[in-house]
Amino acid sequence: MSVTAADRALWRPRVEQRRRTGRGFVVLCYAATALGLLALLVLIGDTLVKGAPYLSWDFLTSYPSRFAERSGVLAALVGTFYVGLIVIVVAFPLGIATAVWLEEYAAPGAVKSILQTNIGNLAGVPSIIYGMLGLAVFVRALGLQRSLLAGGLTIAILVLPIVIINSQEALRAVPSGLRHASYALGATRWETVRHHVLPAAMPGILTGTILALSRAIGEAAPIILISSIAFIAFLPESLLDSFTILPIQIFIWVSKPQEAFHAIAASAIIVLLALLLAMNAVAIVLRDRARRGTRW
Amino acid sequence: MISVADTRVASARRPPRPARSLARRRTTDRTVTALLLLATAASVLTTFGIVLVLIFETFEFLRVVPLTDFIFGTEWTPLFDPKRFGVLPLVSGTLLVAGIAALLAMPLGLVIGVFLSEYAGARTRSIVKPFLEILAGVPTVVFGYFALTFVTPNLIRPLIPGTDVFNAAAAGIVVGLMVLPLVATISEDAMAAVPRSLREGAYALGSTDLEVALRVVVPAALSGIAASFILAISRAVGETMAVAIAAGSTPVLTLDPFRSVQTMTGYIAQVSLGDTPQQSIEFRTIFAVGMTLFLMTLALNVASQVIVRRYRNVYQ
Amino acid sequence: MIGSSRSLALVVSTALVLAACGGAGPGQPASQTQPGTTAAVKLAGTIKIDGSSTVFPISEAMAEEFQKKNREVKVTVGISGTGGGFKKFCSGETDISDASRPIKDSEKAECVKNGIGYTELQVAIDGISVVAHPQATWVDCLTTADLKKIWNTGSTVKNWKDVRAGFPDQELKLYGPGTDSGTFDYFTEAINGKEKQSRSDFTASEDDNVLVQGVAGNRGGLGYFGFAYYVENKSKLKVLKIDDGKGGGCVEPTLQTIEQYAYKPLARPIFIYAKSDSLKRTEVVEFVKFYLGGDSRKLIGSVGYIAAPDTVYIDGLAKVIAVK
Questions:
Q1: Is the CB of C82 inside 8 Å of chain B's CB atoms?
Q2: Chain C window 183-222: which residues touch B at a Cβ cutoff of 8 Å?
Q3: Are A283 and A209 part of one and the same domain?
Q4: What's the pLDDT tens digit per position in A97-128?
Q5: Angle value at C-alpha C67, between C64 and C68, nearest 5 degrees
């Protein structure tokens, strides 16, 4: 049957109007994105403006002081480095090994899927809960007291799920053809993994681990439960020494009411962000090299 | 190394011996398998550790404080006399901050996700995606600092003069910014998974871009979008530093976002800074509150996984 | 792919080198004798201090100055509150406990139980300052009766107009130390009549900085904390005079009124408690001697507290030397 004029009167395409709504939505999209971008720029800009004047070599090499002008982040920076080292030494091998086992060795089934869900859930647990675990197990049960080792271990198990998940993704991206070729030549599973799969996945794994390290360095909540001494003016010289980290130092300075301390908190934030930026830049470079280098 | 001499007919000569005996390689393989299994076990131990610690201390806590008092009580004064252990004020503080965060992040994040998935060209994406990654990577202390020193004096106070210097609104706003990338990227992934054929079919029927986006793609990707919302709320609930700095330390049952409140995480941080000794009831409150927090985020995370698994539209 | 393992090696070794450099930083002085140390004996060791946030500014200043002269000594200072500090002290975790009130009997018993001997040393005089927002023009002086009305258990005072007739309709926002704080113990006993007896719906924090931020940020704010925190933030706060109803009139906390205990009832001595076992270590003794020494009076004043009469310090030093 053909469409009569009466039918056409019922259905009004209103094309122009719909197009206008569509264009309006696009404007909304740009506005929303611009708003988000603006918020980030204001955050960074405000921090830079308040903190840049206090940034200096002295700031990086001084200890905190009751005078804001004389305070510096040396103890916090070194503490952050050491915690990062402990994370690298503990979480990365453990996490990569777990990812290898899950991806290359585990037979698909109930056990593997329970483990996967488990790790996924762990990744979503609030960081302060890890702090409680660290307090109960490392500080009290293992008697490490409020030491660098206890803090480092706590952060290590915090980022462990992230390392596992990222490494798994990197391993999954390696095409199975590579593995099959290796098996076809008579290699054992470990030889295949060690000489073919891992090297192929390494850039992806490294990217993931650097991102996990970024997360580790920015965390403060677990360390509040482990050690939040308000005044540390020395460098930890052993794993059992007291310590502080950049985010905690920032937290302490922000909590002081004097404007001057807020200003140096901003300076410390700049240092922290610079550190993170450097690490993420390394991660991006590695990611690009991975994309260019792989020829499947 | 294989030499020319060895390439003669196989039956005339035995094949060259491999560098290591097969038995040794098999042993190495088995040893390594065992080591890897051990590593996995260590990773799993963490879950048991968390659950065990929380359960044990909460159990000790509940021996002193009845569960109904804890869950339904409306006053939280464990450090004062008389001690009251009703967790509702802390939960309400948490939900208030998380609610404000969700109100900001969900619509904004969804729109940005739709934008990235349906509208943005390669150049725009190359600007927006890194910005989202940066936003997601900024440590939470920085957001707390921003809330206290910028948002409250410059954004909230001018609008609502009676606002407390510590308030839930500022904390909620920055936590919203924090989880915005989560909503945007997960929604975008969900929408990108919707096959082109669906969109093309709609276009063929005369739909505009907006109609395709909102009436075809978003409903198709709804499970992923819903999951992103729930994950964002879960993240907001678990956030500590920003609320510890900016939201205040007054446990109070209220819906007023412009006054000082205290979240579950803020309480844990406050008591830890004061550090009570091990066997006291005050110390156990940390774990009881922690257990509540853990259960809430676990429920949210599991819910998001269930939604994705059960309601995801699987396309050919 | 070999390249990425090399990059990894590079990254890790750089990190290790940087960390080692950090460790070899200012903490390694040449072996010269610095003024303020016993000649030819380089002090080294760790001193753990924790406790009152009121006393914290003094201990922090002492730790900072002492460490400048004795680079090998590591001093940490925490703010767990007077009560929290004693709990750690009596379980042997700390060497020195900062306290803004004398040790309680129950705490003494705990120390005895764990075999912790100690020496009580007064280090300064504090006047707990009751502060309001600078724009609170309606109030200048509060009586102890007013304070009790506001702060006592079960108080329903939520607005300034409920405090005294004639005060404007301005919401009252209260800030005070937490329950581990010696200041809290002292204030509640002096004002409400019983230690720890207090209303609970105020912003409580062991960190006095948070309280300053709170009062300075709210027109209707009212809080109390150690005098040093007021002095440090004078431009942001308005200190109130206190009338103790015993004929002294409205007294403002100043150096003189606190020193002579004329600022009643909120002027009080503040202490450190030194563990006897720790006093057997040279670095701890030297630190305590530095703390009580003549040069440090100025430091106490600069931090905002009032030095006690000289005899107090001389007695203290004598006690310390006797323990050795």
A1: no
A2: 196-198, 200-207, 210, 213-214, 216-218
A3: yes
A4: 999 999 888 888 888 888 888 888 888 899 99
A5: 85
